[in-house]
Amino acid sequence: MLNTLVKKITKGLVVICAILSFSVAAFTEGTDYIVLEKVIPDAQGTLIKVFSYDCPFCYRYDKGVTPVVMQQVNDFVKFDPFHLETKGKYGVVASELFAVLINKDQESGVSLLDDKSLFKKAKFAFYNAYHDKKERWDGGADEFLKTGLDAVAMSKEDFEQALTDPKVQAMLKRWKEYAYDVAKIQGVPAFVVNGKYLILTKSIRSTESMADLIKQLASQ
């Protein structure tokens, strides 16, 4: 009986090892991801998402993919959104507000994926207005900005003051320097692990496989 039990355990371990080996081997450079020529510095242990408020696929990912995947990879990477200012009529204004709100969330210790996140509230206010209600803010940038500010109960004066924070300005500079170079490769949303590995979204089959790929890349 003991020998039979040992054989069963051994067989089970062999199967598990085979499955794990197959899972790792399933992800290959050039098919599932590429190595960026212009690596984003100081990004070890992060999952950067380059996105735009006027990108319908970014909206879909933020609703049903990104939060699900992050639940599975929280122990491996930290979520780090980069807004693309070159896409959308009000891309620059959106970037400024997002940077301000991300900084406030970080200072408050609130996850950017939490429903309490100011960044998330403003982001979805823009998403809902643009994609669901077909709002185009013909009144100009102030009208656009008001949509985001109203979502987080912030005055324009407080926003303008917060925008001068050196941490906010550093964030905007970082986005400006790297977001477009990543986005021009395959569009947005674009996911980068450790500032180096760009996930090829066309190869994503499920949230589970995406999470497994992120885990693999995070450990490389």
Structural category is alpha+beta
Could you describe the largest sheet, including whether it forms a barrel? 5 strands, mixed
Computed Rg: 20 Å
Percent range for helical residues?
55-70%
Average residue pLDDT:
92
Total domain count: 1
DSSP helix count?
9
The total strand number stands at 5
Question: What name does the CATH topology carry?
Answer: Glutaredoxin
| Low-pLDDT residue intervals, each spanning 5 or more residues | 4-25
User: What best-fitting shape do the alpha-carbon axes yield?
Assistant: globular
CATH superfamily: Glutaredoxin
Question: Quaternary arrangement of the chains shown?
Answer: single chain
What is the name of the CATH class? Alpha Beta
Strand content: 5-15%
**What is the straight-line distance between the termini?**
43 Å
**Gross CATH architecture:** 3-Layer(aba) Sandwich
Order of helices and strands: HEEHHEHHHHHEEH
Q: How are the strands of the largest sheet arranged?
A: 1-5-4-2-3
